[in-house]
Write a structure and sequence with these properties.
The protein is an all-alpha fold and about 280 residues long. It has eleven helices and no strands. It binds a DNA duplex (21 and 21 nucleotides) through helix 3 and helix 6.
DNA sequence: AAGTATCTCAACCGCTAGATG
DNA sequence: TCATCTAGCGGTTGAGATACT
């Protein structure tokens, strides 16, 4: 498209940030706030790409970041969220205040994957790995048994990045992460956003997950009023709405306050359709 | 102590959605 | 409507740290 590069690469530093660069970036953002990342480097006197500045700030310098080890509770929450959302690291990160998507992504790849495999669970599908079939696990092949930790949270087979992103779009009906047996598989077999295993590993899987627009944050307003009022099907209107936090046990049984805290009204909180009797996903 | 293997995680790259003119 | 720009996302890489021989 003839698009110009995001920065003049010939005149930008790359690699690890120095303390001085960090200080410059922090000072600038403290003075001016987060804003136009493209123009920030020049304004702040940094020989860095705006993208790089943004990343450095978001992943490392932000004052509200929580450094240090993840707790077991964090682990379990991440696992559950991953089962629900796939590799939507930014969405997962928003449920863990002080953690970044990059940090969670790294933690997943270095710790949780191994932890799940040691439990005999395929980290991509969240289903038990059949005995001795680590290769199957790696390729996303699964058994049909329920997951060990959360049988109702079988993973959604990898919505293509942004194609089914509940934050960005309000589909005409459910944001169904499930795919039928006739759904097209992903173009490649390796891990991509949302997961690597678009093979029909769960042909009858129907998560029927209706994540509302505020999925991104417990109480964040919807992106647009139009989207917020996107017409739910009558089918939906009959569903009891349950906050995702509540469903996941985040609030430990409490009714999530995000329902009331949202300025956008009752449509602004996330809900899952409870499974009907005999239904499994 | 030295060399090698493995692990961790900060940073980069390429891509897309949404905004704008 | 189209072209372009920007912010943001997810996958990947590689330097440094650590463990092992």
């Amino acid at each position: 498209m003839g698009r110009s590069p995001c920065c003049e690469k010939a005149h930008t530093n790359k690699g690890a940030w120095t303390k001085e660069e960090d200080q410059r970036l922090i000072a600038y953002i403290k003075a001016h706030g987060e804003g136009c990342w493209r123009s920030l480097p020049k304004a702040a006197g940094l020989l860095r790409c705006g993208k790089s500045c943004r990343l450095r700030w978001m992943n490392y310098l932000r004052p509200d970041l929580k450094r240090g080890n993840f707790t077991d509770e964090d682990d379990e929450l991440i696992i559950k969220l991953h089962a629900l959302l796939g590799n939507k690291w930014s969405l997962i990160a928003r449920q863990l205040p002080g953690r970044t998507d990059n940090e969670i992504k790294n933690y997943w790849n270095t710790h949780i994957k191994r932890k799940l495999l040691s439990r005999g669970i395929d980290p991509q599908t969240h289903r038990p790995v059949s005995a001795g079939s680590s290769a199957a696990a790696a390729s996303g092949l699964t058994t049909t048994a329920s997951t060990a930790g959360f049988p109702s949270l079988a993973p959604s087979p990898a919505p293509a990045s942004r194609l089914h992103n509940p934050v960005h779009t309000a589909p005409p009906s459910n944001v169904s992460f499930a795919r039928t047996a006739t759904s097209a598989p992903s173009e490649d077999g390796h891990s991509s956003s949302g997961g690597s295993t678009d093979a029909p590993r769960c042909p009858d899987l129907n998560l029927d997950l209706d994540l509302d627009l505020s999925m991104s944050l417990p109480c964040s307003p919807p992106k647009t009023p139009a989207a917020a009022s996107s017409t739910p099907t009558s089918h939906h209107q009959q569903q009891q709405t349950i906050c995702l936090c509540y469903h996941l046990g985040v609030r430990n049984g409490e009714v999530c306050s995000c329902k009331t805290a949202s300025p956008a009204g009752p449509r602004a909180f996330r809900f899952l359709r409870p499974l009907e009797e005999g239904q499994y996903i």
